[in-house]
Amino acid sequence: MLIIYNISLKIYYLLALLISPFNNKAKQWIAGRKNIFEKIKNSNIEGSQNIWFHVSSLGEFEQGLPVIEKIKLKYPKHKIVLTFFSPSGYEIKKNSKIADFVFYLPNDSKKNAHKFIKIINPQIAFFVKYDFWYYYLKELKTNNIPTYIFSTIFRKKQSFFKWYGKWYKKMLGFFTHIFVQNEESINLLKSIGITNTTIAGDTRFDRVIEISENSKNLDLIDKFKNQKFTIVAGSTWQADEEILIKYINNQSENIKFIIAPHNINKQNIERITTSLNVDYSVHSKLKLEEVKHSKVLIIDNIGMLSSVYKYGEIAYIGGGFGAGIHNTLEAATYGMPVVFGTNYHKFKEAKDLIEQKAAFEIENFDDFNKIISKLFSNIDFLEKSSTNAKKYVHTHKGSTNLIIENIWLVKTNY
After folding, report:
1. pLDDT on residue 408
2. Is the pTM for the entire model greater than 0.85?
3. What is the C-alpha to C-alpha distance for residues 181 and 202, in angstroms, rounded to an integer?
4. 254 found inside a domain
5. Rounded to an integer, what distance in angstroms lies between the CA atom of residue 298 and that of residue 316?
6. Judging by beta carbons within 10 Å of its beta carbon (0-12, 13-18, 19+), is residue 131 exposed, middle or buried?
7. Cα-atom radius of gyration of the chain, to the nearest Å?
8. Residue 9 placed within a domain
9. Could you tell me the CATH number of the domain that includes residue 226?
């Protein structure tokens, strides 16, 4: 399995290299790792008391942020080292003040892991949700560095629990402690002999509550809303937008729409705007005197969405007709019923929200039309769904404190 693992890493690198001239994300992934160890050494990281956090991308960064913030408060003299696997996280957060050092994670190999751990010399290491890198985890274990993973969730279909999963199980054994989201994960891990576990829930609940409590007041968004019933559609893809646009172009209700596409490049924004038969505004070209008369507002930037949700009555979450839905909790924390497509079954919170009658699955335009009409016309139904959404989020807070408490109960080198 180790041979297969090494081959797969090389294939991944070669594929990224081959498509990098035509794919910006692959180009950033390759370029970001060029001379990576020289960049790390030049950062004056050596000699510091370092705490390492690794995340895959932007979503996992947001998930890990509450723990990073608590660690910084508890150990202000220590430096935070933050690594990303994906450009979509690194390029947005490379200048984040939450960390003292931000790098791409060098490609996993025995040589790179040894070199990286030797340079940063972390006193403790944290992985967020997933990204299991064999050589890094083994190197941390070899050096007796306490290593934790939190907000993770396990499913029966994963390689750890297959007949060929012995090697994958070995990676789990490198962790000092594993903080999972639910009891199913605990039971799955027990079935393969992993017992150094705790149910600590999902730190995203703490994060979205914190965001909602400190959300920005956006005057332009408020003027656009103009006290009208508003639907906020976040992280949408083309399949989502086709349903939304059809509804917008054909409905006569006094509803406004804010659409924040996942892809904000010029061509995609133009595709959306040319499909609309109603007055619209694009945020980057916003004219204050015109915005209140627009039916649709397109958000063509990254970073506003979590604050924009509070201006809506209903949220539509994109991705459900593709790889999977995006963050439902950012909307639910404001007490918004959420609507999304069919690909949500890997997301515990989405299934929970449906059970709580705070979220609604759609398969097509007709489903969307029916649920929006019901939520818009039936105020009792809307209020009940809204209350259920907010209650669900707030009853699941506290994961961060539970993790911190258990980390220090497990003996570390501090």
Report:
1. 58
2. yes
3. 6
4. yes
5. 14
6. buried
7. 23
8. no
9. 3.40.50.2000
